[in-house]
Amino acid sequence: MGSKSALVGFALAVMLGGVATLGQRPATLDIYSIDVEGGGATLYVSSAGESLLIDAGNPGPRDSGRIAAIARRAGLRQIDYFLASHYHSDHVGGVSELAAQIPIAHFVDHGPEMHDEGRFRGSDAMFGSYLAARAKGQVVQVKAGDRLRIAGADVNVVSSDGVLTSKPVAGTGPANPLCRDFTPQEEDRSENARSVGVVVTFGRFSMLALGDLTWNKEHDLVCPNNLLGHIDVYLTTHHGLNLSNPKVLVHAITPRVALMNNGPRKGAAQEAWKTVRSTPGLEELWQLHYSVERPPSAILNEALPTGGPSLNVAEPFIANLAETADHEPVYFLKVTASPDGGFVVENSRNGQRKAYPARTASK
């Protein structure tokens, strides 16, 4: 199916699946941040039963099995839409194994070509397995500025294949005073810079997920004007690495809550972690993993050691405490959003649960 007809399919799914009936539970959007050991996997499930999975972790049975287990827990018989943010193995490596466990109806991505140079060069075999799985479903190739719908939730594409949206997600994009102090990094020519980034909105609730979009591209989304607006939940870009998460973006979007999908030895880098923690108006940072102290890495733009006690939030707000990279049991973070903009975050490890009431109209 071509892109145009697939987008029509999105709209049709909403009309059929998004109609409320008497006795139906209140409309919510459930969001599961799934532990794939420093990779990417976020599952969105509407109260109508429609689903969007963004990324599928690493190759092998471990990550695909974890994702499939969460999908079953959410009552799904298929993944309606799988969105590949970009073609690195920690984001699409698990797709073929996942498709063998639960059907995937639609594949959403930036196109059938992988663009990588130098140290980010990906695995051709891994990419080939993604294309093979993709060929068995219906394909939606998205561009910046596109909008998809899933049971009342808008999926606003703000970046795709290296191109950024030119229009604000909602209303008029205000000027961003933080732009004047921005220092660019070296231009990124890898798949990271081509990430499909989205703002998912559900009524007045909003969540930003930019995949592994890198520093300079993130700047361009909010400079000279902030096209993203204010965000309720921010999935930290690139697992919380210093290659992403510039202050010019993070502090401009003023998230109430940040979720860091880091691994024990990946992400939660010192500069990015401190940038998120110092965000004006931030009420909480939740981490998918305890971050183990490790030496700096020039490849990841880390000049200082990272991880360790000072670069972790309080234990109740961390889903997984195990320091081994392949641990059991495995825990997730869950966001339950309401159309009024309020939401709840829950840690499946300890039952820690915190409600964030809807913002007042003046905020």
Describe the protein's topology.
Layout: H1 3-17, E1 29-33, E2 42-46, E3 51-54, H2 61-73, E4 79-83, H3 89-92, H4 95-101, E5 104-109, H5 124-134, E6 138-141, E7 147-150, E8 153-160, E9 163-164, E10 197-202, E11 205-209, H6 215-222, E12 233-235, H7 247-253, E13 257-260, H8 270-277, E14 284-289, E15 318-320, E16 333-337, E17 343-347, E18 353-356
Parallel strand pairs: 3-4, 4-5, 5-6, 11-12, 12-13, 13-14, 14-15
Antiparallel strand pairs: 1-2, 1-16, 2-3, 7-8, 8-9, 8-10, 10-11, 16-17, 17-18
Key terms:
363 residues, alpha/beta, Metallo-beta-lactamase, Chain A, nine-stranded mixed β-sheet, 8 helices, 18 strands, globular, disordered N terminus
Description:
It is a single chain. This protein has 363 residues and is an alpha/beta fold. The chain has a single domain (3-10, 26-356), classed as Ribonuclease Z/Hydroxyacylglutathione hydrolase-like (Metallo-beta-lactamase, Chain A). It has helices at 3-17, 61-73, 89-92, 95-101, 124-134, 215-222, 247-253, 270-277; strands at residues 29-33, 42-46, 51-54, 79-83, 104-109, 138-141, 147-150, 153-160, 163-164, 197-202, 205-209, 233-235, 257-260, 284-289, 318-320, 333-337, 343-347, 353-356. The strands form two sheets. A nine-stranded mixed sheet has the order 6-5-4-3-2-1-16-17-18. Strands 7, 8, 9, 10, 11, 12, 13, 14 and 15 form a nine-stranded mixed sheet that branches. The longest helix has 15 residues, at 3-17.
